[in-house]
Amino acid sequence: MERYTRTAMLLHWLVALLIIAAFLLGLTMVDIKGITPTKLKYYSWHKWMGVTVLFLAVARALWRAKHTPPPHPAGMPAWQNKAADAVHYALYFFIFAVPISGYLYSLAAGVPVVYLGVWHMPVLFEGTPELKAFFKPIHYWLNMTMALFVIAHAGAALKHQFIDRDGVLKRMLP
Questions:
Q1: Which class for 108: exposed (0-12), middle (13-18), buried (19 or more C-beta within 10 A)?
Q2: What is the CA radius of gyration of the chain?
Q3: Which among 38, 83, 139, 154 could disulfide-bond with 101, CB atoms 3.0 to 4.6 Å apart, if both were Cys?
Q4: Is residue 110 a part of any domain in this protein?
Q5: What is the pLDDT of residue 1?
Q6: Which CATH number do you get for residue 149?
Q7: Which chain regions cross the lipid bilayer (predicted)?
Q8: Domain contains 90
Q9: Strand, helix or coil for residue 108
């Protein structure tokens, strides 16, 4: 069975780990009451992870455009092929949409994003309470929907590994 390239594997697992970490950190930081040094630190880390995911998403999309992924297993039903492709396209959408919506939400809240405490990202517009109220649920629901797709993706990989035993998961493992 054909495998993904080492670069594709590296980008896949880096993005996956960063998304999981940013998601869990996001859930943690919003539960901290008030404005504390820890909460501010977590917000910075969360934003840094999001920007890193966005940069890696660009690299990943460019790599994918030049490198065809391995074909689906020969015995996989057509509906599963279509479902796998749909989930992959949705995940690509989310790895762009979630960080961008977070960036816009931060700007809408009037808080600029300073990547790694060094690079001041462009301030595209001035924050207002109305814009903050607009972008907050967008960022939240994109995250929650992405989490469902990540769970479906991981569940399908585990199904292929332990039930179908068709080697699909091994294609993405180093």
A1: buried
A2: 18
A3: 139
A4: yes
A5: 77
A6: 1.20.950
A7: 7-25, 45-63, 89-118, 138-158
A8: yes
A9: helix
The answer to whether residue 14 sits within a structural domain is yes
Residues near 103 by Cβ (< 8 Å), separated by ≥ 6? 47, 50, 51, 54, 113, 121
pLDDT at 166: 93
Q: With a cut of 70, which residues of the chain have pLDDT below it?
A: none
Model's pTM, two decimal places?
0.95
Q: Which domain holds residue 97?
A: 6-171
> How many domains does the chain contain in total?
1
Task: Compute the distance between CA of residue 75 and CA of residue 138 in angstroms, rounded to an integer.
Answer: 39
Strand partners, 119: 115
At 26, list the tokens. 């996001």
C-alpha 120/C-alpha 133 separation (Å) is 24
State the pLDDT at residue 173.
Answer: 96
Q: Write down the pLDDT at residue 124.
A: 98
In the numeric block, which tokens belong to residue 41? 């630190």
